[in-house]
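Standup notes
- HV: blocked on the assembly model, inputs below
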Amino acid sequence: MQRFTCPFCGPRDETEFHFAAEAAKVRPEPAPEVTDAAWADHLYGTDAPKGHAREVWVHLTCGEFFVMTRNTVTRDVADTEALPGRRA
Amino acid sequence: MMRYSGFTLFRQGLSGHRGWQPAWDKATPKPAYDAVIVGGGGHGLATAYYLAKVHGLRRVAVLEKGWIGGGNTGRNTTVIRSNYFYPESVALYDFALRLYEGLSKELNYNIMLSQRGMLIAAHTPMQMEICTRIANAMQLNGVDGTLMSGAEARERLPLLNQTADARFACLGGVWQGRAGVARHDAVAWGYARAASALGVDIIENCTVTGLDIRGGRIAGVETTLGPIRNDRLGIAAAGATPGLAALAGVRLPIHTYALQAFVSEPVKPMLDTVLLYLGTGTYLSQSDKGELVFGGGLDRVPTHGQRGNLPSQETITSGLLEMFPAFGQLKLLRQWAGVVDVVPDSSPVIGPVGPEGLFINCGWGTGGFKAIPAGGWLLAHLLATGTHHEISRPFDLDRFARGRLIDEAAGSGIAH
Ligand SMILES: Cc1cc2nc3c(=O)[nH]c(=O)nc-3n(C[C@H](O)[C@H](O)[C@H](O)COP(=O)(O)OP(=O)(O)OC[C@H]3O[C@@H](n4cnc5c(N)ncnc54)[C@H](O)[C@@H]3O)c2cc1C
Ligand SMILES: [Zn+2]
């Protein structure tokens, strides 16, 4: 069993967490000019990086979303931090 | 190619089995090919075979970074079925099943297809309604699906937990009689052997590290065994596909997850069908050697590491014991995982992407073994003709921009 650290609650079992998205996705703007392809890429496109990754996860128990930096091959977690504007 | 038959077996027996030849030639790369396929799993090998057989292309190579069938093709639980919901999916998976039904003969290689039937079992009246809906969809799509009653299911599966306080009492479910299992390695080896006999080069221990793109067209690939020129490239590399597509500047709607499977010690024959419990997500079949082969849902953490994690192991094995309390005494022989490529609508991505001449076949996620003959057929069609076959058209990457998703997770609750 792996432990992840919620920036708000501290270390908890991995089963309390859920992967949400890759971090730093920017919503394309302005909306009327966004092509179908660009919008589809924003909604569904991923890099699925092998190794170093920055991802948004949710701690299901407290409901907070946060950023996790980890290695997708070894699964080692380097760091977790609150989203900008949220203070732990 | 040496033909396999009862007679060759008998003759080899007389000479102490010393005359067998290797099933396929170990090839080294030539400087150029008409078409190159990345990934020596079932889909890549089938693609090469149909390119040579159906389209007459002979200068074809399959490049595999490890050994053929060492990816998900050799790691899966071998369930074959076509009980999907959407007509597009049924057209695809039933095409595969029909090709599977003739494959041992076609390849002259026994893939041990065993159409022992599959039950997707329901445990609540609501699940039973979902099963009715799937059975109806199957009948409308022209495949063999029926609703099985609880009494019938319990008769077929006498060891099921039938105690009054069973948490997941079996109420029946959807039955497909043509579903079953096949030997996964044999599918890879059979296609490799037949492709090799038609002149295809099967090159193992060769990793594709770069794509040579000139003027918006594929011109070749870079590999650990040197550059290879080719103007048509097919990628069928499962969980490694996003990284390869990125070399062509293409982003795919794919997350990679580990999916685990388990094998118990062998026991006497006690289960003559494939069984999936909707209530627990665990599914199993009994191998010809008597082992119980079982698995369940995806691991919850996206990863590229080919190993499973403990919480999913607990969920899957406790699901098994819920179905069959008697298995509590069985020992596990092995546990392993594959890295599967999961698409938001749980359907594969087949079609052209990025530079001209580049085609992909991926996104099979937890269920692409059953699709191997069709996936190979369709990618071969794309590589040979440059255009979609009518069966692959709905699975093009453009479905995400067109909003025409084929959501089998919602439609049929995909499970392997
Ligand atoms: C535990 C488990 C259980 C499953 N159970 C079922 C089931 O019961 N029924 C079912 O239908 N499906 C099942 N699946 C899914 C099924 O196994 C896959 O969808 C299917 O095998 C995919 O085949 P493939 O040929 O596309 O990929 P693979 O067999 O994974 O082949 C891809 C190959 O590409 C190679 N490769 C990757 N990168 C490179 C590179 N850069 N250069 C060269 N080669 C490269 C890899 O080494 C690999 O051999 C299961 C999967 C797992 C992991
Ligand atoms: Zn928390």
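- HV (later): unblocked. Chain A has one domain: 3-82. The interface with chain B takes residues 1-2, 13-15, 18-19, 35-37, 39-41, 43-48, 50-51, 55, 72-75 of chain A (CB under 8 Å).
- Next: hand off to the docking folks.
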